[in-house]
Amino acid sequence: MAEKEKKEEQKKIKRKWGDRKDGRRVKAPGLQTIMGYLWPNRTDCEVYLRDVIDATELLKYLEKRNAEHPEYKTTLFHAAVTGMARMVRERPLMNRFIQGRRLYERNEISISFIAKRRFADGAEESLIVLKPKDEDTLDTVSRRICGDVTETRKSEHATGGIDKTLDTLAALPRFLLIPIFKVVRWLDFWGKIPRSMMEGDTHFTTIIASNLGSIRCPSVYHHLNNYGTNSIVITIGTLHKEEVLTSGGTKEVRDVIDIGATLDERIADGFYFARSLKLIKHIFAHPELLEKPLGEDSGYDYQ
């Protein structure tokens, strides 16, 4: 049923000349067009953003929610992923990418992360890609993440999809891998990568999210990659107490998380990035917004 729905959705998206399988070509302003030629590599155009987000209200909300629904534990990471999806839904320039020196807007929102099968050195990792829809809420996103991670951790071996493809390629000798990946990079440049290779690959998602707090690690700046179309990487650090200055001018100890973000500056300007971060902070401060379907506007005033 899911496969049938996916095919029907793909039919609704009419591709035009210059479009890719995963994105529509959009007309870029002169500066962005030139930047694509002067700095064709995504790693040449990285901008870094670090901030601290107050998670006090969100934690209260999650505590109440989990007490009412103990069968499904909703975590801070689930809420963060849902918040990211809402931000991208309301801030469409965040869902753009440059590849082959052209600017594209994705056909869908996708957020990816890596799940370890066990919290141990040497344990295998699996790539998980979430594609939130307009009707999704925190509840559906949380259950989907829980289901995907549980399924991944049932086995110590690859579970199929991109993992299986990578395992197959890794078994080939070097003299074959070098020409194979030259062809892959060429296909990537021209937007001809097979859909089977893009599905489940974090390099072709809107946001790569890393929950470093789950391993008690602070947020870091993670580099982008020239391969694929991913333009945003966000890391979430450890939840901790910190004294903050409230809007009333008083100091108060609050629960906060630090985040680190790396973005491709060619997809939007700093003003747009800053407003997108403000929306994330607003969602954390008003977690009831996570109950609204992503297709409904948050009503946030950017003034």
Characterize the structure shown:
- The structure is a single chain.
- This protein has 303 residues and is an alpha+beta fold.
- The chain has a single domain (20-156, 200-289), classed as Chloramphenicol Acetyltransferase (2-Layer Sandwich).
- The chain is built from nine helices and ten strands.
- It has helices spanning 2-12, 30-38, 56-68, 76-90, 138-152, 162-170, 174-189, 195-198, 270-285, and strands at residues 23-25, 46-54, 96-99, 102-106, 111-116, 125-130, 207-211, 232-236, 240-245, 251-264.
- The strands form two sheets. Strands 2, 5, 6, 7, 8, 9 and 10 form a seven-stranded mixed sheet that branches. A three-stranded antiparallel sheet has the order 1-4-3, covered by helices on one side.
- A hairpin with a 5-residue loop joins strand 9 (240-245) and strand 10.
- Helix 4 packs across helix 5 and helix 4 packs across helix 9 (270-285).
- The radius of gyration is 20 Å and the shape is globular.
- It starts with a helix and ends in an 18-residue tail after the last helix.
- 32% of the residues are buried.
- The mean pLDDT is 87.
